[in-house]
Task: inverse folding
């Protein structure tokens, strides 16, 4: 059973996305990368991201990840920002009742996308 | 370079140019207003070829299926043939029954549709003058009422609003297109707490949604906030006060940015007063309507204060 299913599938992700997005917007280290006029669209992207790292239906390819983040890399997105994302991902999952083993597994999946996201 | 054909005529298209701009440069008159893909005034129909997906965002499924798209959001990568004839079939003729003043710069415009115009409270329509001038306005009326009502802010250089304000508009024939928008009352959750936040004429859709919620005997608390620049701008305050006296679960709050004299209306920033009064928006359904910049700010603040993003219905006026 994937962590995605264990936490409750798509419905649980809806809650998780709001918690996670709120943490991003409230953290000045990364907020500027998440600021947008179209919050609903931004939320959609984050839902796809959370679904992927939790082992749900994966809609991303490495190429998508590179293209989607290229303009942010130009604006200075680097490893420290990815670290912040993984940190908040962990605290979001903890709030939703995931155990530390699951959180570490999710962090590992998120880490595997690091090079694509940063266009390395 | 992809080719653009409008009713059999080839339209010159520059690289990356939007269809609306190309048509306008070629002297083809298409109604338009917001030019950012929100108001749907510049709807046109493709007769051959597929309109770009981003030019169909926000359109009803039935319009998308008929290849309607928003000319202001369309840049072409493939050939497209369009026709301007189709949109007429989407329009309902109407006459302007009356115009009266709600506040120093707000008009109540009553329209008499000559064919049935079905809509849900809180949606918006495009008002088209006989010469093709088009502007989007939210509906303040209820579908159960025979006439349609709009709240129109008079903008000093605004072509439509100054015409409506001139006294020449009453009795005129106009056309209505729409409705559009999904800022509506949802009857499925009768005990949920609702917070309706109106900025200026953002009260129009919420005046409809509020009355629909009350008519549906909504059981949860309903709070309506109205913010304006001055206390005089806070129109319909007698009616809202009367409704709050009639319905124990409804409360009416208002605030103004400034006041010339002493005021019984709280003075301050709407976002600040709202967040002070309601520290947590968790589990509430929130409606935000009116000035685009303030609505975006409120959306962010209300979200950070715990509202689920899917429970926030924002209708920013652009």
Result:
């Amino acid at each position: 059973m994937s962590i995605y299913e264990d936490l409750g599938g798509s419905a649980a992700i809806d809650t998780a996305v709001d918690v996670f997005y709120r943490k991003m917007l409230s953290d000045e280290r990364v907020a500027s990368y998440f600021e947008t006029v179209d919050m609903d669209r931004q939320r959609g992207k984050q839902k796809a991201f959370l679904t992927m790292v939790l082992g749900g239906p994966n809609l991303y390819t490495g190429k998508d990840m590179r293209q989607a983040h290229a303009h942010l890399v130009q604006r200075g997105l680097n490893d420290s920002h990815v670290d912040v994302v993984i940190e908040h991902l962990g605290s979001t999952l903890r709030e939703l009742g995931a155990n530390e083993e699951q959180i570490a597994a999710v962090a590992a999946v998120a880490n595997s996308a690091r090079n694509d996201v940063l266009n390395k | 370079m992809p080719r653009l054909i409008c009713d059999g005529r080839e339209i010159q298209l520059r690289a990356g140019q939007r269809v609306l701009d190309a048509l306008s440069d070629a002297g083809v008159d298409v109604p338009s207003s917001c030019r950012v893909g929100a108001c749907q005034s510049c709807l046109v129909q493709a007769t051959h070829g597929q309109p770009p997906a981003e030019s169909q965002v926000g359109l009803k499924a039935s319009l998308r299926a008929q290849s309607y798209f928003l000319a202001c959001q369309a840049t072409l990568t493939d050939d497209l043939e369009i026709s301007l004839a189709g949109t007429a079939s989407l329009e309902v003729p109407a006459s302007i029954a009356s115009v009266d003043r709600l506040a120093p710069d707000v008009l109540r415009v009553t329209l008499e549709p000559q064919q049935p115009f079905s809509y849900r409270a809180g949606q918006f329509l495009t008002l088209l003058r006989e010469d093709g001038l088009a502007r989007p306005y939210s509906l303040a009326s209820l579908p159960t009422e025979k006439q349609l009502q709009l709240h129109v802010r008079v903008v000093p250089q605004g072509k439509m609003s100054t015409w409506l304000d001139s006294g020449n508009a009453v009795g005129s024939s106009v056309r209505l297109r729409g409705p559009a928008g999904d800022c509506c009352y949802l009857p499925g959750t009768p005990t949920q707490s609702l917070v309706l936040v109106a900025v200026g004429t953002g009260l129009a859709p919420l005046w409809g949604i509020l009355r629909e919620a009350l008519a549906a005997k909504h059981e949860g608390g309903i709070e309506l906030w109205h913010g304006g620049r001055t206390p005089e701008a806070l129109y319909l305050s007698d009616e809202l006060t009367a409704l709050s006296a009639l319905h124990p679960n409804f409360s009416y709050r208002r605030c103004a940015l400034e006041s010339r004299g002493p005021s019984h209306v709280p003075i301050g920033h709407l976002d600040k007063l709202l967040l002070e009064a309601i520290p947590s928006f968790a589990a509430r359904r929130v409606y935000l309507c009116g000035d685009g910049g303030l609505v975006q700010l409120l959306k962010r603040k209300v979200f950070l204060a715990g509202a689920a993003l899917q429970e926030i219905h924002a209708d920013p006026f652009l």
